[in-house]
């Protein structure tokens, strides 16, 4: 694999650790203590519990006085929603504010046919990003070829999976990771992903029908073969519908599909619940979860990092999980925000929201970022450095449980 080559820095020391079956995500080592970080707007996209819309027998507990027209607020409305009313997108009527997130469950919505139709929900960067992003950036990394993650994923990458959502352009897909929840030790129902995988940023609002499939396509079959795969291979841990999503106000206000806008706080946390109503938490079902490090060091102090995802744009098809390992550099688009981490990686759209892992204390992997942006053709990926803003997003999602 290619490695970053920049002035004054030798080849990175990459540590590829084969972790135990309880979590076999490969991670790389971190060096040094955390250094000072730029202060970011630590306000999450504020969340409030939805109030019951009247308490009648047909109420489903959604705040109908606050929601745009067309969203379900009764059982009759929900039937219409399940039968396709969610397709009636009106960009002027998008649910935009954080407190108004709503995602009513639709039984059987994400069948295999619809999952296959899901395209990559990617963000693009401008070609001249190096000349427009400021002097704080390190040299552009050389491409690192994405490597297929060892199968079965239930043994080698159990907490990683795919996030599906409906957008005005049709069904789309991102990646996500089961993360630990200190408020519910050993019983987390939280998933880390990118903000643009759940909210369209400044040009729109919350996406719809969001769900999570951990260890999707467990045996790593090619997409044509997934058609005949048994359900326990396609979704070995079942489907987990998103009950609540939280992202940063920075992403909501500045997030853009191209140009890198909002990417430095392009982070979201999902609270999920099992479709099969098993009674077990996501962490208990999967067998593990990843700790998030909200005080990770700057790129110059990290020896190596591995990122994960299900790239869906050509030459990939979204069926398999891939990973890249490299020493990160820095990329700044908005000087008021902490610099993005950036590594060489050929993963394409669909990998958005996938975890960036380093080896933490005791050799266990810790999440320090998620895939956010990359160029065309795909030669590198960048993700936000998680700090106070991301911690506030996480805490708000955790409190929803």
Q: N-to-C SSE series? A: EHHEHEHEEEEHHEHEHEEEEEEEEH
Which of globular, elongated, flat, extended, rod-shaped describes the shape? globular
Radius of gyration, in angstroms, nearest whole number: 20 Å
Estimate percent helicity.
Answer: 10-25%
Walk me through the structure.
- This protein is of the alpha+beta class and 401 residues long.
- It is 13% helix and 21% strand.
- Strands 1, 3, 10, 11, 12, 15 and 16 form a 7-stranded mixed beta sheet that branches. Strands 4-5-6-9-8-7 form a 6-stranded antiparallel β-barrel.
- It is globular and about 55 Å long.
- Mean pLDDT is 81; it is low at 1-23, 26-41, 46-67 and 131-135.
Question: Descriptors for this entry?
Answer:
alpha+beta; 9 helices; 17 strands; 13% helix; globular; disordered N terminus
Give a brief rundown of this model.
It is built from 9 helices and 17 strands. With 401 residues, it is of the alpha+beta class.
Mind sketching the topology for me?
Blueprint lengths: L27 E2 L45 H8 L29 H6 L1 E2 L8 H4 L14 E2 L4 H4 L3 E8 L2 E10 L10 E4 L14 E7 L8 H4 L4 H4 L5 E8 L1 H6 L13 E7 L7 H5 L4 E2 L12 E5 L12 E5 L2 E3 L8 E5 L10 E5 L5 E6 L9 E4 L4 H12 L2
Parallel strand pairs: 1-15, 2-5, 10-16
Antiparallel strand pairs: 3-12, 4-5, 4-7, 5-6, 6-9, 7-8, 8-9, 11-12, 11-15, 13-14, 14-17, 15-16
């Amino acid at each position: 694999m290619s490695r970053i080559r920049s002035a004054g820095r030798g080849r990175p020391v990459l540590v590829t650790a084969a972790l135990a079956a309880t979590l076999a995500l490969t991670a790389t080592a971190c060096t040094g203590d955390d250094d000072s970080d730029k202060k970011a707007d630590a306000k999450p996209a504020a969340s409030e519990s939805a109030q019951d819309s009247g308490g009648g027998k047909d109420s489903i507990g959604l705040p109908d006085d606050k929601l745009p027209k067309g969203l379900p607020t009764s059982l009759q409305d929900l039937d219409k929603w399940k039968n396709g009313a969610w397709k009636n997108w009106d960009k002027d009527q998008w649910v935009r504010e954080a407190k108004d997130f709503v995602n009513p469950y639709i039984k059987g919505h994400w069948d295999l046919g619809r999952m296959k139709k899901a395209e990559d929900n990617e963000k693009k960067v401008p070609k001249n990003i190096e000349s427009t992003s400021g002097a704080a950036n390190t040299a552009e990394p050389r491409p690192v070829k994405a490597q297929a993650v060892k199968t079965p994923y239930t043994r080698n990458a159990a907490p990683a999976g795919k996030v599906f959502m409906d957008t005005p352009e049709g069904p789309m897909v991102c990646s996500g990771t089961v993360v630990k929840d200190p408020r519910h030790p050993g019983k987390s129902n939280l998933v880390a992903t990118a903000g643009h995988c759940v909210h369209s940023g400044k040009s729109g609002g919350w996406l719809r029908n969001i769900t999570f499939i951990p260890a999707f396509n467990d045996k790593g079959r090619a997409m044509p073969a997934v058609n005949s795969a048994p359900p326990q291979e396609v979704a070995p841990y079942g489907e987990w519908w998103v009950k609540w999503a939280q992202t940063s106000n920075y992403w909501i206000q500045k997030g853009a599909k191209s140009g890198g806008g909002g990417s430095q706080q392009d982070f979201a946390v999902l609270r999920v619940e099992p479709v099969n109503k098993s009674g077990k938490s996501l962490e208990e079902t999967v067998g593990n979860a990843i700790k998030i490090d909200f005080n990770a060091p700057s790129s110059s102090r990290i020896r190596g990092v591995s990122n994960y995802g299900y790239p869906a744009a050509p030459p990939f098809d979204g069926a398999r999980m891939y990973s890249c390992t490299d020493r990160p550099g820095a990329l700044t688009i908005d000087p008021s925000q902490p610099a993005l981490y950036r590594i060489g990686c050929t993963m394409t759209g669909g990998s958005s929201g996938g975890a960036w892992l380093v080896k933490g204390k005791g050799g266990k992997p810790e999440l320090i970022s998620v895939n956010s942006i990359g160029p065309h053709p795909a030669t590198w990926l960048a993700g936000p450095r998680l700090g106070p803003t991301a911690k506030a997003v996480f805490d708000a999602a955790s409190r929803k449980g």
